[in-house]
Every structure is written in structure tokens, then in C-alpha cells.
Amino acid sequence: MSYLSFHPEHEPSQIDRKKTGKARKAFSEWLIENYGTDYEKSLMQQRSLKMAPEVTKAITTDAIQKPLVGIIGGGFAGLYAGLILQSLGIEFELFEGSDRVGGRIDTWYSTKYDANDKNKAGLYGEVGGMRIPQFSEDMLPVQQLTLAVNAVLQRNGMNDKMLNWRKFYYSSPEQRMRYNNMEKPIMAQDATLDTLNFDREQGGDIAEVWMTAVKPKDGPAYLPINKILDKVNEPFIKKINQSFSDGFKMLMDYDNYSMWAYLTNVFELKDLDEYYDPAMGSKTDHLPYNVASYLETLNVGTGMYSVSFVEMILATYDWDGSKNSYDPTDPNIYMVTLDKGMQHFPDACKEVLNLEDGVLPDDGNRAQILVGMISGTNGKKGYSPDNLTPAAEPPETVPPAHAGDPVKGKPSYKRERVHMNHRVSGVTYDPKLFNGQGGMNMRIKHKGESIEKQYPYVISTLPNGAYLNGEKDSNFFEGLSFSKARAIRESNYMPSFKAFITFTQQFWAILGKRQDSGLGVGTSDRSNRQIVYPSYGYKSESGVLQVYCWAQDAEHMGALTDEERVNECLKGIQFLYPEIDIYQFFAGYKPEETTKTWFWDNHANGGAFALFKPGQFKNLYPTLLTPEFEGSLLLAGECCSVHHGWIVGALDSAYNAVLNILKQNGAEDKIRQMEQTWGSLSSPDTALQKMQMIREHA
């Protein structure tokens, strides 16, 4: 996911790089400290309970045991929870309702795809997550996970399944932009002073004062409208850079506003400071509707400014996390993606989970050093993962990591823990289980049969919409607390649409003359919105263009039939390439071979990823984190994090769920082992400890 600027003038420039990547983690802590009273109360009560002795003994020791944790869902939250438990010697079972793992990490491969044929190796695209920022501190655990998994695969002779990162080209000076029936598209490098036909003189609806270039005595010329978001972000970024706590307090004063409401009801023209012109209106006036519409159109998509203002400000930090954190003078964007498709990532995790022995502490610790999560043997942080393809190698300004040699370890034998095509239809709490200490009953459907399982703990990682099981006589959950049931019902998920269209010739590469360096993303105001150019398959004559949009644009596209969606995408691509007939290169409508469209599927039951609406961070986030049924049921998934729409959000939530299980059983040695192996990802528990210390010293 990415919901950031397409226009070069909107790229943030005032962010303190030292704080980049830390903002969301600090925000998570701040939310718990200031709005987590019920969370703290529930957790303290649960952790004070006396657990069944045999359960606690099994969790705190390495004795061979029956599965203690049932995990629902094989997305990254479920897989990561399993990998942590496996590394700690705590047995579990994971149930995935479909025939693949990964959840929203899902690569589409054409039926003609062949990784060993250069003319067919590029015939794929990412239905789900397709990239991660390379140097963002908050995002580093995703790269650490690939290295830890690789260590296990290598010692077990599965080198063909090892994970390698390749460069993802997000931006390019030659990426195309065309809006409002412009005569022809314009390149991003030429767009700084272009009105894109939004001004009244060109048939648009925005007054010329906003669209007329201003040439200051010092600095480059600019369009006033392209300076608005800088001024919207500036006071919050400045305050957060000075103090996370004070910055978030200031930000939360506007938590009940959507981005649209803030722009049109709070922000005043006087806040433009040096960019203000009296012709815009009175200094106390708010931004006109047409101006807000322009900002939404160029930055995100139709209807997306209805989400929380807080989400949009924090997105600015996520965007800056795409830059080189070791060199504040480096303006380039650094993103990576998995070679040959992101689907290989969850598949590799599954391979490891189905081994008796998984990631060792030394595997995880060394991986943390290699990506810069912790300091190396020289006492400094660096970055030099050994699974980067040449184009993804860091720039010279990034120091290397100093890590010891990898631990050899021993090969393992198979142990099936991941159960595919096992659809969990419900879980209920039974206080009589496990010698009266309570536990969860799980109902599972597999090949027409019903299976029942019992566990002291269940970690459920489904998207919130998937808790509607569609059954005649039973709900997925029974007896949830009012707050948890409301949080599941109200948490906002954002619609997403993607399409993959094959062309017999990569005309975009010929016209762009930059394919080996990436063309980035082409944009327009047509319903298909973005064309994501492939960052691979350069040597093939044919290729796949990916169309990507969100919110209302996605809903409009999703309402069509599959072939109608493809037709709309083709018209949008033609709009960006008026100088040629793109249809002469279209490989034809052959679903799964040459085309694929995705809106949402029955495993997600709604939107693609969480994106909170006004007020939901402070009112719903702590509730989603709170375990239910005396700690026996824990929810995880990117919704249960502040990293909405990113893989790391799923990882954070899974880490926190496992930590709660360990805390409840007093497994301090296991907690230290988890931190050694996986780092310290969980912000909520850190915030909880701070709250307790403050109260103790009050």
C-alpha cells in the first residue's frame, strides 16, 4: 500500500531523518500511555490469574508437548506468530482456510509464467503488498525475517527456496502524468509548474491565483497550490521532531477530523504564511472545495481524504522512511521487493514452520545486525544483508554491518504445523477447560468434515470482516466484550483494486528509454489511477502492466465484470499513451493467462487493509490489542497495529500477542530469548511498563 504524493512538489522535506521510522512506534506507545486505561486494567488482571500448572510448565520449559496455541489464518501475522513460538520451543497449530499462505501477500503468476524462460519470467504481478521501504527503522524487521528464514532453509538444503530482495523502482523523472483531457501527457520531471488543466483557463475549476507560478527572489519557482500540504504538515512534523509526546498530543487534538475536514474546516489561508496571496481570500478563510479536491486527486484517490487526519500525517513519516536514513543529503527513494514474486516470502515461512526446528537465537540476532536493527561487533549500526540482488545494493554512504559468521546448526526433520484448506468457523471460550483455568474451543471445517480442537490460547489473525462466518446457527465469536465487538465492527478497511494486463511488447520501455532503471508509476485522473511499471523482466519482449487504485475509485472498478474492468484499464493506459495504439500490443482477454483483476475476495470479506477513520486510533486501537476471555483469545493482524497496510504491522501485532502469552505465564527466560532472536518489536508492552513505573513513583 502507498497513499502518498504523485506530484514532485508534495514530497516532504522537513522531517528529521534520525526520527524517521520511529514515529509510528512512538505513536503506539503514546496511545497506550494516554488512552490505554482499559487495556492496562485488563492486562494486569489477566496476568495476575493463576494459570493451569501443566500449561505454564509447557510454555516455560522445552519439554515435548501438545500444541498450546491455535493460530487462525496463514497471513503474515499468523506465520510470524508461529515462527516466534517455534523458535521458543512452544508447540502450536496453524489453520489456513485457503490453498495458499500469505493472506494479502499474494503474487499472480500467468499460466504462461516460467522463471527459467527470459521471455516468460516477467509474467507476474503483486495482488497484495508489493514493496517495502529499504531503510525505514520500523520496517527493518521484515528484512530481518527473510534473513532468519534463509538461515534455516540453507541448513536444511532448501537453497532454491531462499529469499532475495531486488530493487523496486517507485519513482522516475520520466513517469507519465495526464489529467483533465490534457492534450498530451507530461513527464514528472516537467510537472513542477504545470497546472495539469486544473485551472479555470484550461477548463478546470481552480482560481488562477493558486495555479500561477510564483518566482521568489531566492529559490525555485512554484505553484502556490503545491505548497499547501507542506504547510499542513509543517507544525505537526516540527513538534514531533522536537518531542514525540508533545507532537502526538498536538496531533490528537485533531483526531476527530478526517483529512478533508481538516483542510476545509481547520486549516486557514493565513497558515500558508509566505505563500499566502490576498487574491486567495480572507486570511481566516478555509481552503476551497476545489483546492481540497485537487490535493486528494493528485495525492491519493477519490474519497480517500475521508480517513483520519492522523493517518495522513503519519503517512508522511512512512514516505520519508523510503529514503537513506544514513545520509540526510540523499534525496533518492529506496524500496525493495522479493525476487520472482512476494509469494515466495510466505511460502518460505511455511517451509520453516513445517520443520521440527526453526530459527535459532543466533540466526535472528545476526539478521538483526545485518539490517541495522542493532549494533554489530564494532558497536555501530550498519546495513549489509547478504540477500540483495546487485541493483538493490545500498549506496556508498550506507556503512556495512559487522556481524559474526553464521551459526551452522543441524538439519531438521519434518513436522506439520501448518494445515491448509482448514477453515476455522468459530471459537468459543470454555472456563472448564484445562483444569478449570479456561481455554478456547475451535471449530474447523476440512473436506466436508467438522473438527474440534481445544487450546489454552488462540491467536486469530483474520481481517475483521472475515469474522462473519456465514453459518446458519453459530457466530464466529460468542460472548465478546462490548468494546471488542464494536472495534471489530467499526474498524475501517480501505477498498483496493488491482489489475494485471499482458502486452506482447513492452512499449513503455521503448518510449520511456529507462526500463533498466525503472519507470516508476504513471498517474491520471481516470478510474484506474495508477500504472505501476514492472521492476523486472527487462529482457523479455512481452510484459505486464499493473493498475492500482483505492477507495471510491476501487469500488467503481470492482463493481464491473472482470472483462469490463480490463477494458477500463486499457482505456486508462491508452490515455497515458496517446501517441500509439496500445491495443495492437494487447495480448488479448484470457483470464489468468494474459489478464487478472482483483477487488476483494471471500477470505478478506471487505477492504484490503485497515485505514482508520477519525477517532478510531484513540478509541479502537487499545481495544483491539486487549486479549479476551482471561487472556485466552488474542487478535493480531495489521489492523491491530499502527502500521496499517504494511507487513510490519502484521509482525508487530503477532509479536505482541505472543508476548502477552509469555507474560501471563511468567516466562521471563522465553521473553529474553524472543528479544535476542527477533528484537524488541512490541511497543504496547513497553508503554504498559512506563505507565506502571510512573504510578510506582507518583
UniProtKB/TrEMBL annotation:
Keywords: Auxin biosynthesis. Pathway: Plant hormone metabolism; auxin biosynthesis. Residues 76-170, 415-660 form the Amine oxidase domain. Residues 1-20, 381-414 are annotated as: Disordered. It is an enzyme of class 1 (oxidoreductase). Residues 7-18, 405-414 have a biased composition (Basic and acidic residues). It catalyses: L-tryptophan + O2 = indole-3-acetamide + CO2 + H2O. Its EC number is 1.13.12.3. It comes from the Bacteria. GO terms for biological process: amino acid catabolic process; auxin biosynthetic process. The keyword Zinc does not apply. InterPro entries: Amino_oxidase (IPR002937), FAD/NAD-bd_sf (IPR036188), Flavin_monoamine_oxidase (IPR050281). GO terms for molecular function: L-amino-acid oxidase activity; tryptophan 2-monooxygenase activity. SUPFAM superfamilies: FAD-linked reductases, C-terminal domain, FAD/NAD(P)-binding domain. Pfam families: Amino_oxidase. Belongs to the tryptophan 2-monooxygenase family. PANTHER family: AMINE OXIDASE, FLAVIN MONOAMINE OXIDASE. This is Tryptophan 2-monooxygenase.
